[in-house]
Amino acid sequence: MKRVALSTLSLALLGVTGMAHAQSSVTLYGLIDESIQYVHNTTATPGGANKNLVAMYAGNLQGDRFGLKGTEDLGGGLKAIFQLENGFDVNTGKLGQGNRMFGRQAYVGLTGDQWGMVTLGRQYDPVVDLVQGLTADNYFGSTFTTPGDVDNNDNSSRTNSAVKYTSPVWGGFQFEGMYALGGVAGSTGSGQTWSAAATYATGPFSVAAGYFRADNSNATATRTSWSTTATSDATFDSQVNSAYAGAKSIGIASVAAQYVTGPFTVNLRYSNAQYKPDANSGFGSTEKFNVGGVYFGYQATPAMLVGVGYIYTKGTGDTSATYNQVSLGGDYNLSKRTDIYLVGAWQHASGQQRTSPTSVVPAVASIGSYGNNSASNSQEMVSLGIRHKF
User: Fold this and answer.
1) What domains are defined for the chain?
2) 324-348 b/e with 16+ CB inside 10 Å = b?
3) For the segment 269-295, what is each residue's pLDDT rounded down to a tens digit?
């Protein structure tokens, strides 16, 4: 009798385990983006001699990554979710995002069909989630983004210790809100980040807008860098905005609109990024970057996409510099998971630019978010690459 009872219990437990397994899922995924890249007019340091660079470069269209994501059905339309996503450089094997194990994303949360989703951990802000997808960067990545990524259009910044709410989609409308706690005892706002964004889509037309605000931590001496205790990563990708790493706060307002008809895609975007100083910053006046961009894409065949983009960036306040950038790209799918691409850009800079807290010089070019410094007011770049998803 005991054997029969134990066997029956074992079968019952196996049935429960099988049911739980059927209601849960964990997915391993990843992406590798690698290229041969040519850059004309680049230097190792600002003001140095210009040289031509030919090198391997990873992550043009998308950053290299692998990750785990999963769900568990809790019943009643409620699910537990998580995502752990690692960034790396395929050329060296090194970790990305400041040598973090899961530097791209690391969060856990709950989601429900009726009330939306709450996630907690390191994650993208609402502007990246809802606005960036309606810009050229969504199609051709870093070569089509803002010089120095001054407005975080290329997702340079992620936010630690964040609580984010994502609403369901109601008649084409959706919104997100996020707040990240600075975690400084006695100073709640030190190092905090908050953001909100909304989007509306109807037929071929989509529009989105949002605002992102990140505060640096307190400092008692001259601040020359974005503090590691701030909840958001730095966005200082080149000499275009590196001199403002001592900012007390960064505020970015963004809006984008997109229209898709047949094989054609057109989108427009505008952003205003403000780097504000305080008594501890290495610069005295707020630097404002106004950015306007337009993108035109053509799906020539089901396998081939071609696109052209233009970005105008104007710096005012602390200094006055202007950057004009034209980008071209083509992407061809060899399969559902593998594609090859050719992207390139030309940029021209004019006006005055701050390259350090004590140095203002004639503006120099630096395409996209690559961080290739130059001693010239123009720069050109071409990348031939392959991307594989798994």
Assistant:
1) 30-389 (2.40.160.10)
2) bbebbbbbebeeeeebebebbbbbe
3) 999 999 999 988 889 899 999 999 999
